[in-house]
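Notes from hallway chat w/ T.B., transcribed later so I don't forget. T.B. wanted the structure written out for a chain they're using in a teaching module, and asked if we could keep both sequence and structure tokens in one place. Agreed to drop them here.
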Amino acid sequence: MSIGFRSRREQERLLKRLGIKIEEIQGVRSVVIETDNERIVFDSPVVTKMTGGSQEIYQIVGEPVIEKKKEEYVPPDDDVLLVAKQTGRSVEEARKALVTTSGDIAQAIVLLQSGSL
């Protein structure tokens, strides 16, 4: 079911009768929503706050820019120790090689043995 309003004023009057106060928040530069996998950024959005009872609802209108979060690989300690032992290099160097190769143990060993890292 859709409610059609002729004007914003008509909408505000109905919401007021329902006990919902509406106000536009001025001077908003940006709104950022962060999730586990992404970051959603609204630059210069129109933000409206609706208050009803003890609840507040924020409405954001604008063009979102979605940035995917890149997860950095964290190698297991066993892999780090194995690469360090096989190459005779430090644990820090072995960890860096494993991060560079996204956990590929053989590539990490070759990388350290070739002196490329």
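Follow-up for T.B.: The beta strands are 20-25, 30-34, 38-43, 46-52, 55-61, 64-68. Might be a good example for the class.
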